[in-house]
Design a protein that fits this description.
six-stranded parallel sheet; 14 strands
């Protein structure tokens, strides 16, 4: 992994171009393609601006009514780039519009004074393709964060889900090979980048995402939070929060509800989120599954919740379940723990970092609904155990903060800028050698 130096010796970039082609930071997480990556970009951008770095976020326009430029917060702007039809274009179809999107990004820079951007940070592989080309045109370093990896997703694919296409695999290989610096969310993602994509370890740095500890915190009355959300006061509540698609595994939780001991328990499962990805093929699949298993009366569906409402949902729950088949990090798990709610999660990917087994929650190997029903049932029957995990959850979540994430990213940016300038200086010196 890349080394460190004293930050004071390294040039701080004045302005960075952040690329997020397929999803806007202004969209509500939990619907469509908006999720943890959206939260990441929003929170990091705000804190980078507070550190004196201007951030301009390029994203695809999805409505003709969107203004070309929106100030998201002081020092952070969102630029909507017209690329393809505003509506009806799926994420799988977006690669066909990368040329148009790149053209919009390059035109925006061309209208600025030379050297306007000091660095590019791309998020997800399609943005990386754009960043690769912009880097060559602008002569600035390119930092890339994958967030998810096709080869890893295909390795742990859920039953009935669609595998990631070969075009994405090739695109990721190109971006990973050409980026100046790679940022991984966890050491496990860093290992995947090296073993699956032959990433160069010296160009790779682990920077863990954070959590808004001011918003997501213990406190208040569980009864009041349940009343606020229209949830039952007396029964146990298990919450699932995330996009509704096979990758996230919400069906595992509903199947667990139909198995013993949860089938006999006084429990309500809350599914909070909207259809996404291959989940759009059958948007009512979870409702149909609950009905076929005879547990419809125990399942409550909620639309994606805003920040304060989401915090209330975490606090209203006795447990939060994260049965994903793969996660690069697991932001929901950390947010829930910050609220003092223990998490039961699949022992996959970044969730092994996001949850400390038997300290802040419980990790389960596999997705057998019987195993999930047993673990969840045992925890619901043991208030003392849940209280112990709740204390550990708050302590564990305190290790993650967006301030720390932004500070560590800024160090990566400084290193990338310095290395880029040194490379240019070496090339110039070589061109004048006798």
């Amino acid at each position: 992994m890349a080394g460190t130096r004293a930050a004071g010796r390294w040039p701080t970039p004045r302005r960075i171009a952040t690329l997020s082609v397929h999803t806007s930071p202004l969209e509500q997480p939990g619907t469509g393609d908006a999720g943890g990556m959206n939260v990441y970009i929003v929170e990091v951008s705000k804190r980078l601006a507070q550190l004196g770095v201007e951030v301009e976020i390029f994203t695809r326009a999805t409505s003709s009514e969107l203004p070309p430029v929106v100030e998201m917060s002081p020092g952070v702007t969102v630029r909507h780039v017209t690329a393809g039809p505003f509506e009806g274009l799926s994420k799988e179809e977006l690669p066909s519009q990368l040329c148009a999107f790149t053209n919009g990004v390059l035109r925006a820079e061309a209208a600025r004074p030379p050297g306007y951007y000091d660095l590019i940070h791309s998020h997800y592989w399609m943005s990386g393709q754009v960043g690769w080309l912009a880097r060559e045109r602008w002569g600035v370093p390119h930092v890339h964060t994958a967030h998810t990896l096709a080869k890893v997703k295909n390795r742990f694919i859920a039953t009935g889900d669609r595998p990631e296409p070969k075009a994405r695999v090739i695109g990721e290989e190109q971006v990973i090979a050409e980026s100046d610096r790679l940022v991984a969310n966890t050491r496990f993602e860093a290992q995947d980048l090296v073993t699956c994509y032959d990433a160069d370890p010296p160009r790779l740095t682990v920077v863990q995402p954070g959590v808004d500890l001011g918003r997501f915190r213990p406190g208040g009355s569980q009864r009041a939070d349940r009343h606020r959300l229209g949830l039952p006061r007396s029964s146990h509540v298990i919450a699932f929060v995330g996009r509704i698609q096979p990758l996230k595994g919400p069906d595992v939780l509903i199947r667990a509800l139909a198995a013993s001991p949860l089938r006999e328990a006084d429990v309500t499962v809350v599914i909070c989120g909207g259809p996404s990805g291959s989940g759009l093929d059958r948007p009512t699949s979870l409702i149909e599954l609950a009905s076929s298993l005879g547990v419809s009366e125990k399942v409550r569906f909620l639309p994606p919740q805003t920040g304060d409402e989401l915090a209330a949902l975490y606090r209203a729950a006795d447990l939060v379940a994260v049965p994903s088949h793969n996660e690069s990090f697991g932001l929901v798990a950390v947010e829930a723990q910050a609220c003092g709610t223990p998490v039961v999660a699949a022992a996959v990917g970044g969730l092994v970092t996001a949850v400390t087994n038997n300290v802040s929650g419980v990790l389960i190997n596999g997705h057998d609904p019987v195993d999930w029903s047993r673990v969840l049932g045992e925890l619901l029957q043991s208030p003392a155990r849940r209280l112990q995990l709740s204390v550990g959850a708050v302590r564990h979540a305190a290790n993650f903060s967006w301030d720390r994430t932004a500070s560590e990213l800024l160090r990566v940016y400084r290193e990338a800028v310095e290395e880029h300038r040194a490379l240019i200086a070496a090339r110039l010196a070589g061109s004048f050698s006798w």
